[in-house]
């Protein structure tokens, strides 16, 4: 029997806090329970916000917690070619298009529509959907804008992508969505509109690299926070378009701060480093996030 493969995938753009500890320790516990492998992946495609110092701090925190991941671990910024290859396939299949609009242009367009009384659709995170201008450009217009050196991102043509599907998309959820959804979940990627597949400054995006890596690393169980529950619909779509294996998903509770809000990267006194410095032990951390024990493997 092949062993289950779990992964913890932090972004080194800030300090790990109790929410990350919960995610990491839950991956540890589930891997131990199932005799699975445990991988670590540094999701550092945002090269302006991610730094080697923050990556080193994450390793210190994880080692202190006693997380025993396989080495060497994967660092996304070492693998641009993998993402470029996946992007090239989507370009060849004409499922993505170059998007030139600047943030300011997008904002002004949507504000103008809303001032005219139009209700502009929003994605599950509350961000307005990308407007249609770039999708509607002719091939020759695209060519000349690229020739002019205008920077562009690659965005998924959501309607074209959905047209490639032979059946509705689903995923198996062993955790729960925001309303307790569990079991076989119907994926609805259309609610995200034309998502970014490759940013202006990098040949990838969170959505593209996460599905490429989960497949390349043979991940069978994605255990992560509920804030990524809705994004799973986009991940399922990309997996289907690229013929990638589909893991099982487990979205867990978020650890909330005293103000009832999700913890942020500027975690202050909920950062693992601050807790460690104030005398907390890994067992205390496990207890604080509701996982009673943390076994040193
Ligand atoms: N890198 C993402 C984060 O730190 C997690 C991605 C995932 O688990 O799919 O929020």
UniProtKB/TrEMBL annotation:
A molecular function GO annotation: ATP binding
Q: Where is this region: Disordered?
A: 114-141
Task: Output one GO BP term.
Answer: glutamyl-tRNA aminoacylation
> Which species does this protein come from?
Nitratireductor basaltis
Q: Which Gene3D superfamilies match?
A: HUPs
Per its UniProt record, what InterPro entries does this chain match? aa-tRNA-synth_I_CS, Glu/Gln-tRNA-synth, Glu/Gln-tRNA-synth_Ib_cat-dom, GluQ/Sye, Rossmann-like_a/b/a_fold
Comp. bias intervals (Basic and acidic residues): 114-125
What keywords sit in the KW lines? Answer: Aminoacyl-tRNA synthetase, ATP-binding, Ligase, Metal-binding, Nucleotide-binding, Protein biosynthesis, Zinc
Start and end residues of each Glutamyl/glutaminyl-tRNA synthetase class Ib catalytic domain: 7-132, 183-290
Reading the lineage from the top rank, the first entry is Bacteria
GO CC terms, sorted: cytosol
Tell me the protein's name: Glutamyl-Q tRNA(Asp) ligase
User: Which PANTHER family does the protein's record reference?
Assistant: GLUTAMATE--TRNA LIGASE, GLUTAMYL-Q TRNA(ASP) SYNTHETASE
Q: Family, per the entry?
A: Belongs to the class-I aminoacyl-tRNA synthetase family.
Q: What is its EC number?
A: 6.1.1.-
Signal peptide extent? none
